[in-house]
């Protein structure tokens, strides 16, 4: 299969769908991004990387980062994590407060904001520096030492982070936070504000396609842990539209409100697509469209 030609075609077909979406504006620094940007990259387990459009352009990875923090916590803490966070789809918006109160401060899954705050809290306890640990991991696995936080986006998140602060304070009141709220939020905002390109993210995610083996061949996760992370990505990785994403794309995926989506093709590679205009759930409209067309054309889904 000519993968480069395929990405070129998909980009042409999917990019116009961005007109149906809207750039996230609840974080002012994200609202300034040009909605017509479009990039797609495919990194394969045999080391090749294909790309089209803005695939080398860094963007705000936002919640795509949460797939990586889950990997870092699971690798260190194993099953103990599941005492503090669930692994069921939430069916609610990613920053919803109601469900957390009903469920006594135990977030439904690690990918909604409350769950991601738990991951960061745990990684802080385990390493003393959650953001630093994640950034180092992403630099190593992507092969790009320049991966870093966009300070303007981080400041914008912090200034408008009232809902995240409410989630963190509520979990603290339930005894489900080990570190001070302000510290957890600081690491959370900076984590969401990491910038990476489609090529960086596709390379960095390869351990998920490679059954837990990192870029240098070392084992980062057991085969079973890699499977579990992919499973949670499939059921919970694309907000309260994970069912629709699974129906259309048929791959584990993690999206972010910066417009990025990382999708894992187990045993084959990782696709990353970036188009900033989002649907009402928070998923990139043209991004989902491109992934849908990719699996339909290649038959490379997990089903
Ligand atoms: N920083 C964003 C927030 O906390 C992340 C949201 C996302 O990408 O899902 O609202």
Q: Unreliable runs, pLDDT <50, ≥5 residues?
A: none
Total of DSSP H or I helical runs spanning 4+ residues: 14
CA radius of gyration is 17 Å
- Which hetero compounds are present in the coordinates? glutamic acid
What strand order characterises the main sheet? Answer: 3-2-9-8-7
Write down the domain tally.
1
Approximate shape: globular
Quaternary arrangement of the chains shown?
A: single chain
- List how many beta strands DSSP finds: 10
Using the 3D structure, state the CATH architecture: 3-Layer(aba) Sandwich
Q: Structural class from helices and strands?
A: alpha+beta
What separation lies between the terminal Cα atoms? 20 Å
DSSP strand content: 5-15%
> What's the story with the biggest beta sheet?
5 strands, antiparallel
CATH hierarchy, class: Alpha Beta
* Mean pLDDT reading: 97
Instruction: Indicate the CATH topology.
Output: Beta-lactamase
Task: Give the full name of the CATH homologous superfamily.
Answer: DD-peptidase/beta-lactamase superfamily
Estimate the helix proportion, in percent: 40-55%
Q: In sequence order, what are the helices and strands, one letter per element?
A: HEHEEEHHHHEHHHEHHHHEEEEH
């Amino acid at each position: 299969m000519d993968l480069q030609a395929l990405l070129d075609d998909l980009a042409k077909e999917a990019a116009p769908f961005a007109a149906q979406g809207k750039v996230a504006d609840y974080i002012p620094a994200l609202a300034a991004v040009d909605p017509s940007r479009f990039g797609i990259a495919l990194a394969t387990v045999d080391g090749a990387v294909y790309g089209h459009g803005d695939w080398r352009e860094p963007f705000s990875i936002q919640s795509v980062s949460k797939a990586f923090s889950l990997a870092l916590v699971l690798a260190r803490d194993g099953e103990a994590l599941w005492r503090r966070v669930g692994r069921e789809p939430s069916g609610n918006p990613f920053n919803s407060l109601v469900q957390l109160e009903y469920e006594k401060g135990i977030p439904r899954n690690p990918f909604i904001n409350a769950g991601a705050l738990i991951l960061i809290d745990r990684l802080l306890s385990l390493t003393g520096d959650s953001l630093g640990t994640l950034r180092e991991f992403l630099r190593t696995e992507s092969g790009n030492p320049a991966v870093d936080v966009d300070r303007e986006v981080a400041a914008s998140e912090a200034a408008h982070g009232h809902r995240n602060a409410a989630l963190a304070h509520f979990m603290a009141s339930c005894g489900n936070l080990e570190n001070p709220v302000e510290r957890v939020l600081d690491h959370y905002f900076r984590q969401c504000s990491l910038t990476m390109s489609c090529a960086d993210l596709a390379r960095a995610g390869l351990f998920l396609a490679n059954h837990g083996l990192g870029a240098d061949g070392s084992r980062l996760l057991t085969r079973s842990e890699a499977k579990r992370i992919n499973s949670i990505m499939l059921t919970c990785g694309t907000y309260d539209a994970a069912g629709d994403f699974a129906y259309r794309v048929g791959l584990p995926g993690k999206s972010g409100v910066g417009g990025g989506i990382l999708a894992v093709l187990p045993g084959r590679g990782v696709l990353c697509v970036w188009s900033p205009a989002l649907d009402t759930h928070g998923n990139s409209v043209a991004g989902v469209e491109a992934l849908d067309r990719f699996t339909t054309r290649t038959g490379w889904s997990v089903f």
